[in-house]
Amino acid sequence: MELKRLRYFAAVAETLHFSRAAELLHIAQPALSQQIQLLEKELGVLLFDRDRRHVKLTAVGRLFLVEVRQLLAQAERARLVAERARRGEVGQIEVAHVGSVDYSGVLARSVIALRREAPDVVLNLHDLEFESQLDQLADGRLDVAFLRLPAGERAAEMAVLPICRESVLVALPSGHRLAERELVEPEELAEDAFLATTLREGLGFFQTQLQICRDAGFEPRIVSRSRHFAAMMSLVAAGQGVALVPSPVSRLALPGVTYRRLNSDQRSQVAVLHRREEPGPALARYLRLCAEAGRAVPA
Fold first, then answer.
1. 268-275 and 193-196: which strand pairing?
2. By C-alpha distance, which of 145, 86, 81, 84 is closest to 281?
3. Total number of domains in the chain
4. Which helix (H) or strand (E) holds 134?
5. How far is Cα of residue 140 from the mean position of the Cα atoms in its chain?
6. Which family does it belong to (predicted)?
7. Intervals of the chain under pLDDT 50
8. Is residue 160 domain-shared with residue 274, that is, in the same domain?
9. Which of 17, 22, 109, 203 can bridge 199 by disulfide, Cβ–Cβ 3.0-4.6 Å?
10. 114-to-90, 139, 145 alpha-carbon distances in Å
11. CATH number for position 205
């Protein structure tokens, strides 16, 4: 049953006049009459009683009109949804992030921008471990992963969108011997106990932490590791060690923790990873907004 014929039927049923309906539909009256006849033949019923002067719906035609109106309304809703999806105005995006990205504000800014541009796109946020993000991105459970590079050999399978680069600070217990310094040399930390992230070597901010220490000529003596910087800073406050952190973590102001600039050229690169396939309109819109949010982050 063709949707076009249902529209023709509805036009005749609402005007009860073949000539007027044909004008509204911008087709010739004989063609309209033929389409109605074909519809009646397909259904095996008469939809109209008609003579040379009058047209009226049969009892079957009246019942059929109720259903046709609902079907045409649903078809129009489907068309509008498809059109809005084409423009990236509707859809659902699964986004994962490592906790440290939250401090920079880039994730929040991207969400706010999406709400402003496309309020009907549903954005689901997942706080996942680094390698879980890569797993779920690869198998399609996630659309986007906010990570700190490097992401290891598996990043070669993904599209990588650099978002922002952040300087690295050292978090010191407030009574630490270097807490009064404006600038700390990495080698001055060689004898300190270190608190670090839980990642393996070669991944994310843990690799940045290691590289800074190695560039300064020493291997950090790591006494505790945590996935969350908030937990790490509580241990710093308790005097359990020092920690290298991305600069936005300094917004986590805990009593007993002093943040100081580190004399290092190393930066922490925040990136968005997604599958290499062409992103749909809603995801393409969100990726653009992520890049714009990153440009607002000071280096």
1. unpaired
2. 86
3. 3
4. helix 130-138
5. 13
6. Belongs to the LysR transcriptional regulatory family.
7. none
8. yes
9. 203
10. 11, 25, 16
11. 3.40.190.10
